Amino acid sequence: MFITAANISPLLTNVNWGLILCGFGMFLFGCTFMGNALKNYAGDKLREYIEKYTRKPWQGIIIGALVTALVQSSSATTAITIGLIRAGLMKLNQAVGIIMGANIGTTITAFLIGFDLDTISLYAVFIGTIFYVFSNRKKAKYLGEFFIGFGLLFIGLTQMGDSLSPIYKAPEFVDVINYLTKQPVISLVLSTVITGVIQSSAALIAIVQKMYESGSITLAIALPFLFGSNIGTTITAIFACLGGSTPSKRAAVVHVMFNVCGSILFMIFLKPFEAVITTIAGITGAAPTMQIAIAHIIFNVIVTILFYPFINHIVTIVQKIVRGEEDEKKGDDLEELLNVDVAKRLPSSALSIAHAATIQMGHLCAENIQEVVNYFDTKQPSTLETVSQIEETINGYDKKIQDYLIVIAQEHLNNDDAHHYMSTMQIIKNLERISDLCCNLTEFFEMVNDAKEEFSDIAKSEIKEMLSIVHTMMLKSIECYDNNSVDLYHDNKRLEEKIDELEEKARTGHIKRMQAGDCVTKVASSVYVDVVGIIERMGDHACNISRYTINHERAIGNPDVAK
Hints:
Blueprint: H1 10-13, H2 17-42, H3 45-52, H4 57-71, H5 74-86, H6 92-105, H7 108-114, H8 118-134, H9 138-168, H10 171-182, H11 184-198, H12 201-214, H13 219-232, H14 235-241, H15 246-268, H16 270-284, H17 288-307, H18 311-321, H19 334-337, H20 340-345, H21 347-378, H22 381-409, H23 415-450, H24 457-483, H25 486-515, H26 523-555
Helix pairs in contact: 2-9, 4-5, 4-6, 5-6, 5-14, 5-15, 5-22, 6-15, 6-17, 7-12, 7-17, 8-9, 9-12, 11-13, 12-13, 12-17, 13-15, 13-17, 14-15, 15-18, 16-17, 21-22, 21-23, 21-24, 22-23, 23-26, 24-25, 24-26, 25-26
């Protein structure tokens, strides 16, 4: 039967699509707002817990589940994990456990909906608003944001469910449901596509819960939709690894493989699983929304249990699928690398360890500069997120290396060690500042992109030339610090002078173009001078790294550089 304007059911013409979309938007905003509030409340602790307490796969499963339950997004947990892999702070077998746990943790949203907290949600918004408006403390405001997000989640879901009710009775909808009942694979594919588009498995599952509660769909349709949502949510992991290291790409493939294989397995046993959920519902008297939540967690827990013994085999298979240069040599755990006992007993050896960690930090800075160039070229939001993730990781390096150096400084240091300590402390400060400036650059580029503007061809050429030189300087600085090379220091001095000249030329040329009326953009024209100024400062910091290295060598009387 073909649906035309002439035979559309009157029920469909009475549907208020504005209220449906508004409710859906409130639900998505509530989920995101609540998760972000908890993430901000915890600060850097979430990343630290993921990094620190995932030595073994079973620990990764627990941490992945807990963190995802907090941030209300398995995609967010997986993206953080991929960021740590890109930074070399986590290995692939650790990431597999976290990805498995993230799938379990994401079921918390379905359970919250299953508890039918509609009335409480109204009070939650009021309480959250009080915290947010009348408190001056950040923690209290974050708590307020959590309550507001929690309340809006249920308010939006209720509005969406009530507004959808006319659709459930329409003959056209009944025909579609009857077709999908006979074609569960179509339901799986449809769910995968929808989740990939909206990038929220929780949102789709919430809709399925409401539809199942209303009786408009059967369990035979609800379950394939649930399985498909697990596949669709992997799109975020794929975006997060684009342009990343080989291990981060492998982590994304693991995420896809795990969710796809689990969904296919349960599709094969769809009828028995449906019978199990029906039996559980009969014994417990669980409401329809809670039945879907129970099915969701059983599905993810069983898949995790089945795949857990094969984690190492999965890693091996993925390594064969995604071939490439191994980047995991950076993956020595920073907590283990910066051993406090070594710092107290053998400060000279500890300085060498801090030196190695600083080299890792420097390579991350170089990678972040390249990601800035990638964002400038592609304008991809995923690349913007990558810059932010690497910057957060570099901040972690900065804090941990500084703390480690402070422990070393408390011990008796000879002149050589004292100068090595001071140069390393100065170098990590410059590295951290370079990473901050990378984020500053992307913020300006984002402003231009949001305004739907472009830099002129001349401006683009100047920006890319300066960034290329800074990237080269960064690599030379790292090598200079690693090998105490006076030649690389002089190379960087020449490159710094060239950057200064290019910045002056770019600024002067831009002013002339402005005076001649050649610049027709508003945002791009206004931020261009700031952009080239930031790049020039990045060059200064890169040169400072090699300068502090050589000053250290001079201070200890190295004849090779004391000239």
